[in-house]
Amino acid sequence: MKKTITLLATFAFLVQFASAQEFEVGTNAINAGIGLGGYYGGYSTSTQSPVFSASYERGVWDVPTWCSKPRRLPWL
Question: How far apart are CA 17 and CA 61, in angstroms?
Fold first, then answer.
């Protein structure tokens, strides 16, 4: 139990230092993966096979960021 709490506290502390790269206009990302398997078929037959996935993303426009001093939203 003490080991689990120590690991969770360490993880919570280290997460603060994580940072991500911005996804900017013109940025491309390609992803491919193989899953453990899935069932395909109808009610009478089914086949188990590995699941393959692929995706492609491209940054098309900038998303505006909030200013450092948040304003009150009119509907609140």
Answer: 28
Question: Where does residue 70 fall: left (phi above 0), alpha (psi -120 to 50 degrees), or beta otherwise?
Answer: beta
Rounded CA separation 35/50 (Å): 6
The model's pTM: 0.43
Mean per-residue pLDDT for 50-64? 83
For residue 34, count CB atoms less than 10 angstroms from its CB and return exposed for 0-12, middle for 13-18, buried for 19 or more. exposed
Structure tokens at 42: 């109808």
- Cα distances from 15 to residues 20, 61, 74, in angstroms, run 12, 29, 34
